[in-house]
C-alpha cells in the first residue's frame, strides 16, 4: 500500500552558482518575502541552526517555499535527470501579459505568452538558465 498522497508541495529549492546574482533576479522578478536567511550578524548557534541554507535564501510562496542554494558547480540542463522547469500559478492571462511587459522592461528574454489549450504560459530563464514558467488557466 502506498503512502498517503501528499496534498501539495512543501518547497522547491533550486541550486544556483551565484547567490548574489540569483537573489537580485528573484527579488526583482518575483518580489517574494524572505522566509529564511542567515542574518549577517548571526552568532554561532544561529549559524548552526540555519546551516541547511548553505548560504542561500528561502522565500515564502503562498503556502509553499522557494529556495536558492548556492553550491552549483555546473550549468542547468533540462534534458538531464532532475528538474525540467518550475511553473508558477498566476490568476489570469492579463497577469501574464503584464509579466511579459515587466520582463521586456528588465531585459529578460522570454517566449511570449502562449495559448496551450488548457491555459496560457510565459516561459523565461533565471541567470543560471533554469527554466521558469508562469501559467494562467483559461477562465
Written overview of the protein:
- With 139 residues, the protein is an alpha/beta fold.
- The protein has two domains: 73 residues, 2,3-Dihydroxybiphenyl 1,2-Dioxygenase, domain 1 (Roll), CATH 3.10.180; 57 residues, 2,3-Dihydroxybiphenyl 1,2-Dioxygenase, domain 1 (Roll).
- It contains three helices and eight strands; from the N terminus they run E-H-E-H-E-E-E-H-E-E-E.
- Strands 1-4-3-2 form a four-stranded mixed sheet. The chain has a four-stranded mixed sheet with strand order 5-8-7-6, with helices on one face.
- Strand 3 and strand 4 form a beta hairpin.
- It starts with 10 loop residues before the first strand and ends with a strand.
- The mean pLDDT is 94.
Properties at a glance:
139 residues, alpha/beta, 2,3-Dihydroxybiphenyl 1,2-Dioxygenase, domain 1, 2 domains, 4-stranded mixed sheet, 3 helices, globular
SSE inventory with pairings:
Layout: E1 11-15, H1 19-30, E2 34-37, H2 44-49, E3 57-61, E4 64-69, E5 86-89, H3 93-105, E6 110-115, E7 119-125, E8 131-137
Parallel strand pairs: 1-4, 5-8
Antiparallel strand pairs: 2-3, 3-4, 6-7, 7-8
**CATH architecture name of the largest domain:** Roll
| Total number of helices | 3
What does the average pLDDT come to? 94
CATH class identity of the largest domain: Alpha Beta
Indicate the percent of residues in helices.
Answer: 10-25%
Summarize this entry quickly.
The protein is α/β, with parallel strands linked by helices.
Amino acid at each position: 500500500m502506498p503512502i498517503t498522497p501528499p496534498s501539495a508541495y512543501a518547497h522547491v529549492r533550486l541550486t544556483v552558482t551565484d547567490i548574489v546574482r540569483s537573489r537580485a533576479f528573484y527579488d526583482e522578478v518575483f518580489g517574494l518575502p524572505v522566509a529564511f536567511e542567515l542574518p549577517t550578524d548571526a552568532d554561532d548557534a544561529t549559524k548552526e541552526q540555519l546551516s541547511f541554507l548553505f548560504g542561500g535564501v528561502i522565500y515564502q510562496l503562498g503556502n509553499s517555499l522557494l529556495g536558492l542554494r548556492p553550491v552549483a558547480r555546473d550549468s542547468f540542463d533540462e534534458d538531464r535527470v532532475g528538474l525540467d522547469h518550475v511553473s508558477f500559478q498566476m490568476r489570469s492571462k492579463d497577469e501574464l501579459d503584464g509579466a511579459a511587459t515587466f520582463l521586456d522592461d528588465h531585459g529578460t528574454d522570454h517566449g511570449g505568452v502562449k495559448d496551450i489549450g488548457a491555459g496560457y504560459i510565459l516561459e523565461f530563464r533565471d541567470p543560471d538558465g533554469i527554466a521558469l514558467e508562469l501559467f494562467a488557466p483559461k477562465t
